[in-house]
Every structure is written in structure tokens, then in C-alpha cells.
Amino acid sequence: KLRNWTKIILACQKQGKWQEAAESWENLGKWTQAAIAWQKVDKIENAAVCYEEANLWQKAEECWLKLNQLDRVALALEKQEKWQEAAETWEKIEKWGEAGKAWEAISEIEKAVECYEKGELWAEAKECWLLLNNWEMAGKASAKLGKWQKAATTWLKIGKLDQAALCYEKCEDWAKAEKYWRQLNNWPKIAHVCEQQQKWLEAAEGYLKSKEIEKAGECFEKDKDWLKANECWRKLDRHDKIAQVCEYLEKWQEAAKYWLLVKETTKAAECYEKYEDWAKAEECWRITEAWDRVGIVCEYQEKWEEAAQIWQFLGEWDKAAVASLKL
Fold first, then answer.
1. What is the DSSP string of 130-174?
2. Three-class DSSP category at 201
3. Residue 305: partners with Cβ closer than 8 Å, 6 or more residues away
4. What is the Cα–Cα distance from 7 to 32, expressed in whole angstroms?
5. pTM for the whole structure
6. 72 and 63 in contact (C-beta within 8 Å)?
7. What are phi and psi of 27, to 5 degrees?
8. Are 59 and 51 in contact (CB under 8 A)?
9. pLDDT single digits (tens) 295-309
10. Rounded CA gap, 88 and 106, in Å?
11. What are the tens digits of pLDDT across the range 20-53?
12. 145-168: pLDDT as tens digits
């Protein structure tokens, strides 16, 4: 039967029926003959596929090249172990991963890593840098992958403590970051990582050494070290902050004075009340026109007539009557 089919196909070819011949050769699994027949009718893609089926990779390469299908050209070149030509072809169409692998096949590691980096294939790039013993670039590739612990370890191998510390910050390993920032005496960074660990006192001291007084003051406050916080705010003339700290220290008169400096009259009045300086409290409440509070502090001072008048003005008749009885 095969011989009969072959005779029929050859007869088709003699009659110039190349497409029918090609299809028949394919049905018989005669890929080389099919490819030649397809070429006769300029069906280059069909011919290329048949040459691939026949493992005639050079012929397939020539066909794909005519069609400018460079990805298929590159694959055909790889099948022939023409790795350099394959790599260069992959590069032309910016298939960086495939190009890198082709370069690696002939141990062109530097060219491979260049391709991997262009394609942002950081895992592959990292492995290449490790093969080249380039720890610095391997560290950068690990960082690009977001593998901060590995990146840090890699930086430490070449003594790049600052880069290692930055990687530890990225993965929020604050203790290790602190360790290496301390070795470098980098006080702003020491302060920052201590703050992340809620080590407020150490953070404050770091900020002081790096002359970041405001941040130091905030950390002293979080540590509830009001005296040191107060020192910081006084250096900065932060009257509002001094007032707050004075309140924490229950230095009501001083707190009131500083609240007045920043025109926080209500807060000043409240502090004067806590200090029981009713006259000063009254002055403040009068400025804010908080007449009910004026009435109360007048009573504390036994200024009954004024208290009665204020309660009458506010329509607080019972309170006005009580104050009047005390005249």
C-alpha cells in the first residue's frame, strides 16, 4: 500500500500538483518530502514545520529566516547547538531570558547576566553574579527580588555594613539593622531603628546626637521623661509643647503662662483653675467670654455681687439667688 501511495504522490508531483503531494507526504509521515513539496508552492511556513518534524534543523532555520520569524530561527539554532547565534537572535527580539540561557550554555556568564538584568530576571541574574563571585551585584539582585535577608547576608560578606543595614530595615529586622548602624556610628539611623523598636530613650539620645531636637523631644515624651522633653522644647522655643509638659509635671502656673504665649486662653484658664489662681482664671475666662466659668471663679473668690450679676445675665436665677443671699 505504501508503495502504491508513493507512486500516486510522485505522479501528482509530475503533474505539478505539489500541494496535494505535500499533504499526502505529511499523511505518510514523510516529512522531508513534504517539506520539499511545500517549498515548490512557496508554502515556506508549512515547509519549516515539516523540516522540524524531520529534525532537519538547518533547513528549518533557513525557512524561518526567510519568514523573518526570529523566535523560530533561534529555536532551530539551539537545536543545532549554535548557542552564540541563538543568543544573539534572542537578543534581537528582546527575549532576554532565552538569550541569557543560551549564553549560559557556552559559559558566557557575563553576557548572560546582562540579558537577565535587561529582562529584570533577578533570580537568574543573582545566580550568575554568584558564579562570578561578584557579591555586590548578587546583593543588588537579591534586593530587587525583595529577598532582603539574603541580600543583607550577601552585603555583609563584602563588608558593606550600610547596605546590609538598609536591607534589614526593608525586612523590618530592626535589631539587626541597629547592630550594624551602631558599628557605623550612624546616629540618625540608630535613632530611627530604635524608634521602630519603641526603644524611646535610646531613640531620643540618637536624635540628640544627630541634632534632631524635635524628634528627640517626641521620643522623650513617649518615654514619659518629661524633664528631658522639656529641655528639648525649650531649646526650640516650642511654647505649646512646654505648656503640655508643664501640665504633665503639674506645674499649672507655668503651663498657663506658656498657653497664653500661644494664645490658648481657654487652656491657660483651666491651668490657673488647677493652680487655684482664681483671679488669673477669671481674667482668661472674661477674654473668652465664657461667662458661666467667670461666675464660678467669682464665687471661689467670694465676689458674690459680680457672681449674682453674671448668673442673672445668663438666666441662672437659682444661682443668682444663692449668690445674692451671700452678699
1. HHTT-HHHHHHHHHHTT-HHHHHHHHHHTT-HHHHHHHHHHTT-H
2. helix
3. 323, 327
4. 17
5. 0.56
6. no
7. -60, -30
8. yes
9. 999 999 999 999 999
10. 13
11. 778 877 877 889 988 888 888 889 999 999 999 9
12. 677 788 888 889 888 999 899 988
